[in-house]
Design a protein that fits this description.
about 30% strand, Molybdenum Cofactor Biosythetic Enzyme, Chain A, about 20% helix, alpha+beta, about 400 residues, 4 domains, Molybdopterin biosynthesis moea protein, domain 2, 6-stranded mixed beta sheet, homodimer
């Protein structure tokens, strides 16, 4: 039985980023990771640009207060100046328009009064560069504006558009096949008969996969039959970078998954981790390097197993530098009174207090209790043994 | 010019949740908010269920050590017991299988040795209820398992499946129309000619919309022409719950948006907010209650304006109770030396330090600098005036 840290290290040892591909820059690419540096193909802005509506001037002409300048033309955004600004001259200019040659500053229109072809500048001390966004100030041709390894966030969409990109080379979202096992399972649209329960792990793991940056593919329920389970897991291995299989990974007579995986050429690296909920937790690698996670059948255990082991793997396959999860130390919002035989991840909620966030343990009855897990936006990390602690004690928290 | 808090209050005063609709429980519904309580249609588990592979027994039979019991049948998960367990009897049972009548506990197979139709229990002190998940322990028929107002997270998918739901009544994701204005703009696939720049706000605002829980619809670039702008904004109002229009909202001669909005029947509630970046920031409501946000043309200003004003509105329309954004107080990872004439939201990054998170201000040259804003996963909130502060000073942070 491995410790959590050792199990994570073993998983990560087998993770490497997927082969890159071209991704069109629709919002579907949000969260993909760039696989190549993005270079600016032009200066941005491509010209010295006015940051205000007003007048383009030579700063030296406006050293004193109340300079009066001759207005020689008007340039709106999108237009091009045709006349250089000479001594004693100004060009009426609008936000986003190119600065005319000769001008080196912009006076806001609020600081100027126009009158019959002339303008009186009432801005005292106009400085060169004032309200001008210099050519190439944000990026110069050839600059690396986004590095390989950058996740494409919303602001990156803007930067990529500025750099002229409509597609990029990126790591794909890993394809994640989801299989659940058990003769007792029926799907949500079915009323369970005697001895049956509804399959909650399938929908939950697909949703966790989306949140974790993977593309889920649900393959259905494998009955506790070697041939059926082999067929379904074989199909999952064919179409996936990562296979999640919930249930059937323990050591019982009906826990077929380890034998089936062996028959499919999967090398099993470990089968149990000292973690609660979720001790039976299998990790293997397939013939094409696919990662296989055998998660416990209890839904809260499957949930935690995914977050601690599968999600970090999906992140690395998807090109992220950090596997996560991110943890933070927060004071307890309520006392804790429990003891666990294993390191435990239990559901909790962040609470905005007067002096910052605190963490509130949620009522929860253990591994089969998904209703108690559902409101969690955090997992409280408790060491094995006596985990009693008073309100205010700092506790380690995984953000979901 | 409104203060930020007053502007937010004015926006929120006009926000109410959208009309609810049925949503199929595919992963596309992740993040939608339930509009009605979800009741359990059956007990869960629907029967007392074994939590281990082992033997179903009467605890009273195993009060001492080394009880020997007659094994009367075997029940796998998905099967149904046919014989009650009497005194001195046991049923071979597997995880997930129903507990037979008469039995009140399960002995793990690791604590039992089987031999020719009998089993010797070597578990000392078997307690009633041991390794049994009682019928209805997680949910009872008629229980509210998820309340109206709950965002559908990954664990909720599991709970909904347990409750037999394949569709729910939920608030739809708000439809967000995105228009950008300016004669100087060309799309990313075009090389700017003299006086032109590429449109970065369109792709960025669409991506922010997705992250904020809205469905973006990009309508294109409106040239600085009354009829064209009116046509495009009219179309946006027709198909949207929220309209974002970037640029053209200042007071310049070419800033047509306020006039066009008036002609389209939009009531403008405010036009400027004392915030940096992003002072020109318009908010209005259309004839059908559509919300209209006129954002500055500078991309970092548009970014911040969206996060502070449009995103909270999208959340409320989508049925969330809290508009956000969530803030947290964190120590500065580096000294700050700046002064601002307005309350300022500047890009920053969370840094995992030895004793918890700190916040690192990023290099940033101001409103037009989206490259400097891009790596931010947080905005540092600075008051107007002198914002000098030493490393370690607590600062207010908006998480992106």
């Amino acid at each position: 039985m491995l410790e959590i840290a050792d199990a994570r290290a073993e998983v990560l040892r087998h993770c490497k980023p997927l082969r890159t591909e071209h991704a069109a820059l629709t919002t579907a690419a949000l969260g993909q990771v760039l696989a190549a540096d993005i270079l600016a193909d032009i200066d941005s802005p491509p010209f010295a640009k006015s940051l205000r509506d007003g007048y383009a001037v030579r700063a030296a002409d406006c050293a004193g207060n109340c300079a009066v300048l001759q207005v020689i033309e008007e340039v709106a955004a999108g237009a091009v100046p045709t006349k250089p600004v000479g001594a004693g001259q100004a060009t009426r200019i609008f936000t986003g328009a190119p600065l005319p040659d000769g001008a080196d500053a912009v006076v806001m229109q609020e600081h100027a009064t126009a009158d019959a072809g002339a303008v009186r500048v009432i801005d005292s001390g106009v400085k060169p560069g004032q309200w001008v966004y210099a050519r190439g100030h944000e990026m110069r041709t050839g600059d690396v504006v986004l590095s390989a390894g950058t996740p494409i966030n919303a602001a990156a969409f803007g930067v990529l558009a500025s750099a002229g990109k409509t597609a990029v080379v990126a790591y794909p979202f890993p394809r994640v096949g989801v299989v659940v096992t058990g003769n007792e399972l029926v799907e949500a649209n079915t009323r369970p008969k005697a001895g049956q329960i509804r399959n909650s792990n399938g929908p939950m793991l697909c949703a966790q996969t989306v949140r974790g940056g993977g593309l889920p593919r649900y393959l259905g329920i494998a009955r506790d039959d070697f041939a059926i389970t082999k067929s379904l897991l074989g199909e999952a291995l064919d179409v996936s970078d990562v296979v999640l299989v919930a249930g059937g990974v323990s050591v019982g007579d009906h826990d077929l998954v380890p034998e089936v995986l062996k028959a499919l050429g999967v090398t099993v690296h470990f089968r149990t981790v000292r973690v609660k909920p979720g001790k039976p937790l299998l990790f293997g690698t397939g013939p094409k390097g696919q990662l296989v996670f055998g998660l416990p059948g209890n839904p809260a255990s499957a949930f935690v197993g995914f977050e601690l082991f599968a999600r970090p793997a999906i992140r690395i396959l998807g090109g992220h530098a950090e596997p996560g999860p991110r943890t933070i130390s927060l004071p307890l919002a309520a006392p804790l009174a429990e003891a666990n035989d294993r390191p435990t991840y239990r559901p909790a909620q962040l609470v905005q207090g007067a002096t910052g966030w605190t963490v509130q343990p949620l009522d929860w009855t253990g591994a089969p209790d998904l209703v108690g897990m559902q409101p969690a936006d955090a997992l409280l990390v408790l060491p094995a043994g006596d985990a009693r602690a008073d309100t205010g004690t700092l506790a380690e928290v995984v953000l979901l």
